[in-house]
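Quick one, tokens below:
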């Protein structure tokens, strides 16, 4: 490779780059999975978005998390499959098409089922791929050759098989039960498709007269119109107020129907008057009481929400119109007691956006308990699936325990038509509750079976209803892999590895899948369920269409690029299951957090350009792996391999946010801000050739490793830089996303070295901060004194002295010990001390001889003995008894010479230079003399001015907080911000006062 190596453009253009690589990956089928390939299977099926939808922030977040996991496992060497697809969204498509027909002045019944479905499929071909194309903008590494749709032939076959098997096993049945009815879509909806909304309503109190004329009972209701279908009044049998009335009857106002008073423990004695009206055909609790007490079930409601013939004079009126008219009639007849304002919860249809109506209706149901109990066995005995975070296990388990039979029929045309065929010729050409039917896998099979029962002339009609969308979605993890056929995909990739989804869909989808999979495959559909939080808006509120506070991810992609948006969302995850908040300015469509990630991409781009411009046209492979000798090389390699280790550990345990943050800090801080700066001087043409090559090897090696580490998070920019760094030709089909993920080489990891470098970096940073505070000119070189009592710190600072001088622009660097260090230095025994010792011994011996001679003189000897004994006692007390005295005596006896003092490791502690500012790094004091570097008087004046301004702010903020009216009446966040501002101002003022004291 020559020095004419292609380099990166001056500026990073995310839009050109991202489109380029999305096209490259798809054209080259980079992510096409092969069930026969080696490697541990790793499969995630996409949570299928509604085919009517467009990309919202929830989709972007969910798929960014999934794609990061899949890309990581693919680079680990796993046989990865990310399977895409969409859901047919039965109610959503139906509603959309009916609105179109309404504009044209038509109804679906006028159009007919066949024409209606033709129109639906035409819409699917023309507009149904919108969200799929938007997912492509995210750069997700899905296998587009395996894209599925819940109404395609393969999945329809799976639905047909599942329905038939469940029916044959007695787990699907048809019956007349109370369901949630949506008058807008005129279809049953499941409990999961109902949103409870708090509304300001009323509680109406009515008198129901006793049939024997002895009085009346008072009932309270929020739905007066349903009284037309009342078939009893209920009280709690333990309520002493009404025990004597149980068994009597009342005469229902307006309808003049005699109905009983029953006792049932379901009645809450504290609600209203303790007497409740019972309408079994229009209330879930009343439905259960009706069955227990064998009450009549009177339906007063049509499917469009109007009242039917059982409502008497109110027939044909809309339910809410009838409500007003019923109240007016009861008031006129003297039965209205009072009306109370009442806030209560009303169930709304998620799709129709209108209150649902509990309605008796003939529907198809799944007997849920056997399926739920099987899923519970897997959970309790094998902890399967495993929930991350674990706290969601209990939520999931509680839901399985409480599940009731599942209504799976919908009165719509778009969807999987129920595979039941009726012999309508036996019931006057219509499908009724009593029409004979068969469930079959095809119309031909059904006809043959019905002919055998009712003869050749039997008239056969298929059930017009379709299945709940969640029925087909419940089969998604295995139907998309080919079930009920035993395909290679099913054998290799099932059960899938991980389900990534929001907590709000555990009940809608997760439980459906585990129940279906446990029953049909004998396994849970996934090993792990990674539950993530929601993407909240800029005010910390849940995004919704109702609130109109949604943030369009495509706007942010257009402004900052896909990688920036993806990285922002992942990096913001503080822990599994936690919500994230998206900074967003609605006026400008800007996001500071996404902009920060865009800046990170630019930082990486510029660093990569610098590195490649200094490799002399060589690739990392040509340069070879580094054999580090210098301190900075060993440090960056230690930090790199530690980050590799940490990143893999985080990703293996779903710590995606922590992994992203760790990479950000390493790439921006350690590599870009420090290592590149440290080696710049070694990259000069006149630098030592060996040192220069090691620097090049290290730069190339770490940069390529960074690109691999970051690839799952930011796939586009890393792909572009890697192709340029490794000089992959235009014809190559190689992709960074297919390279092996880095593995940590622990022999490179040196904790002590990293700790030492932290001290060097902190010292350099402190010197730079002091320079900035003192307004030292950027190019000016300064003198710095570093003082520490720690021998280890002095050794570290000395070893990194050249780095400190180079990066902090220091001319003269002095590294000294503290005052407390010098006295504790062990004394050195030199030649002079040895000579003194010999002399002392000689004179001691001479003294003994003289003493002997004196001792022979009468009286004089005794006198000297007394004196000697006294001196000895004083000497021992003064120099021997205490440790401190002994140490002092020893040091005085063996005091080091001047030459020894000069050669000692510890320099005498100089006096702090005058007119200097100081900073502290751990136990290191950093002194920066200002004389001759800045105008000290001007600097002092500047500090004083800033201090005066701060003191004014402190006075103002303190005044506001000392005002009781402000503290009590201002919004809590304003009070909190004021307190924070005061604390910060006081802190800054104290720093300035300290600076001024240093310069005084």
């Amino acid at each position: 490779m020559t020095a004419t190596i292609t380099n990166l453009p001056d500026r990073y253009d995310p839009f050109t780059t991202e489109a380029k690589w999305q096209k490259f990956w798809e054209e080259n089928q980079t992510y096409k999975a092969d069930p026969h390939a080696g490697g541990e299977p790793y499969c995630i099926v996409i949570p299928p978005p509604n085919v009517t939808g467009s990309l919202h922030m929830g989709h972007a977040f969910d798929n960014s998390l999934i794609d990061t996991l899949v890309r990581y496992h693919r680079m680990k060497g796993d046989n990865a499959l990310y399977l895409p697809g969409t859901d047919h969204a039965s109610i959503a498509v139906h509603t959309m098409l009916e609105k179109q027909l309404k504009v044209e002045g038509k109804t679906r019944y006028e159009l007919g089922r066949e024409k209606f479905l033709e129109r639906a499929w035409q819409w699917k071909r023309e507009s149904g791929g919108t969200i799929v194309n938007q997912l492509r903008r995210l750069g997700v590494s899905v296998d587009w050759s395996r894209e599925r749709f819940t109404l395609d032939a393969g999945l329809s076959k799976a639905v047909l098989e599942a329905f038939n098997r469940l029916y044959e096993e007695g787990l699907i049945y048809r019956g007349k039960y109370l369901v949630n009815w949506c008058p807008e879509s005129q279809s049953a909806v499941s409990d999961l498709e109902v949103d409870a909304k708090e509304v300001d309503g009323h509680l109406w109190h009515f008198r129901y007269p006793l049939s024997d004329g002895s009085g009346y009972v008072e009932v309270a209701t929020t739905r007066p119109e349903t009284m037309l279908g009342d078939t009893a009044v209920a009280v709690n049998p333990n309520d002493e107020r009404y025990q004597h009335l149980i068994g009597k009857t009342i005469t229902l106002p307006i309808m003049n129907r005699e109905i009983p008073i029953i006792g049932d423990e379901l009645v809450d004695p504290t609600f209203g008057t303790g007497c409740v009206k019972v309408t079994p055909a229009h209330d879930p609790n009343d439905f259960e009481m009706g069955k227990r007490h064998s009450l009549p079930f009177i339906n007063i409601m049509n499917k469009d929400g109007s009242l039917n013939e059982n409502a008497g004079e109110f027939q044909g009126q809309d339910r809410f119109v009838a409500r007003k008219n019923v109240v007016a009639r009861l008031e006129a007849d003297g039965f209205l007691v009072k009306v109370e304002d009442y806030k209560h919860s009303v169930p709304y249809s998620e799709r129709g956006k209108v209150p649902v109506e509990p309605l008796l209706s003939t529907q198809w149901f799944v007997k849920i308990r056997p399926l739920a109990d099987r899923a519970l066995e897997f959970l309790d005995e094998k902890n399967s699936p495993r929930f991350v975070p674990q706290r969601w296990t209990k939520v999931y388990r509680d839901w399985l325990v409480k599940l009731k039979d599942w209504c799976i029929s919908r009165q719509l045309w778009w969807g999987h038509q129920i595979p039941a065929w009726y012999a309508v010729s036996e019931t006057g050409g219509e499908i009724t509750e009593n029409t004979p039917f068969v469930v079959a896998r095809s119309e031909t099979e059904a006809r043959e079976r019905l002919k055998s029962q009712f003869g050749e002339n039997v008239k056969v009609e298929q059930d017009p209803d379709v299945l709940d969308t969640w029925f087909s979605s419940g089969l998604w993890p295995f139907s998309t892999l080919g079930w009920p056929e035993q395909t290679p995909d099913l054998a290799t990739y099932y059960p899938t590895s991980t389900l990534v989804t929001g907590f709000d869909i555990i009940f809608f989808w997760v439980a459906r899948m585990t129940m279906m999979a446990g029953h049909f495959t004998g396994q849970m559909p996934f090993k792990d369920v990674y539950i993530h939080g929601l993407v909240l808006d800029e005010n910390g509120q849940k995004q919704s269409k109702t609130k109109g506070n949604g943030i369009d991810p495509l706007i942010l992609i257009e402004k900052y690029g896909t990688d920036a948006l993806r990285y922002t969302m992942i990096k913001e995850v503080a822990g599994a299951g936690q919500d994230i908040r998206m900074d967003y300015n609605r006026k400008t469509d800007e996001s500071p957090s996404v902009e920060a990630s865009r800046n990170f991409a630019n930082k990486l781009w510029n660093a990569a350009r610098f590195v490649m411009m200094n490799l002399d046209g060589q690739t990392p492979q040509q340069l070879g792996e580094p054999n580090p000798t210098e301190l900075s090389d060993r440090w960056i390699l230690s930090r790199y391999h530690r980050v590799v280790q940490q990143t893999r550990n985080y990703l293996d345990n779903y710590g995606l946010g922590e992994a992203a943050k760790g990479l950000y800090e390493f790439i921006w801080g350690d590599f870009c801000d420090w290592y590149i700066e440290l080696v710049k001087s070694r990259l000069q043409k006149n630098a030592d050739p060996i040192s220069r090559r090691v620097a090049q090897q290290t730069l190339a090696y770490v940069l390529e490793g960074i690109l691999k580490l970051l690839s799952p998070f930011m796939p586009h920019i890393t792909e572009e830089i890697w192709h340029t760094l490794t000089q992959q030709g235009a014809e190559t089909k190689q992709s960074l996303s297919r390279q092996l993920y880095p593995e940590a080489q622990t022999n490179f990891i040196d904790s002590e070295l990293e700790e030492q470098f932290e001290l060097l970096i902190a010292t350099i940073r402190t010197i730079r901060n002091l320079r900035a505070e003192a307004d030292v000119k950027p190019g000016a070189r300064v003198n710095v004194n570093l003082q520490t009592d720690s021998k280890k710190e002095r050794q570290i600072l000395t070893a990194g002295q050249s780095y400190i001088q180079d990066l902090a622009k220091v001319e003269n660097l002095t590294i000294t010990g503290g005052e407390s260090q010098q006295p504790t230095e062990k004394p050195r025994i030199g030649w002079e001390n040895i000579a003194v010792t010999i002399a002392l011994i000689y004179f001691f011996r001479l003294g003994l001889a003289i003493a002997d001679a004196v001792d022979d003189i009468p009286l004089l000897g005794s006198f000297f003995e007394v004196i000697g004994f006294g001196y000895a006692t004083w000497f021992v007390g003064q120099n021997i008894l205490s440790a401190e005295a002994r140490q002092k005596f020893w040091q005085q006896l063996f005091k080091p010479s001047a030459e020894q003092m000069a050669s000692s490791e510890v320099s005498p502690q100089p006096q702090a230079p005058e007119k200097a500012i100081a900073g502290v790094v751990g136990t290191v004091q950093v002194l920066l003399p200002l004389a001759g570097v800045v105008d000290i008087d001007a600097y002092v004046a500047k500090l004083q001015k800033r201090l005066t301004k701060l003191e004014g702010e402190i006075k103002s903020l303190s005044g506001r907080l000392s005002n009781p009216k402000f503290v009590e009446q201002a919004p809590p966040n304003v009070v909190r911000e004021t307190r924070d501002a005061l604390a910060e101002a006081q802190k800054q003022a104290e720093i300035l006062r300290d600076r001024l004291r240093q310069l005084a």
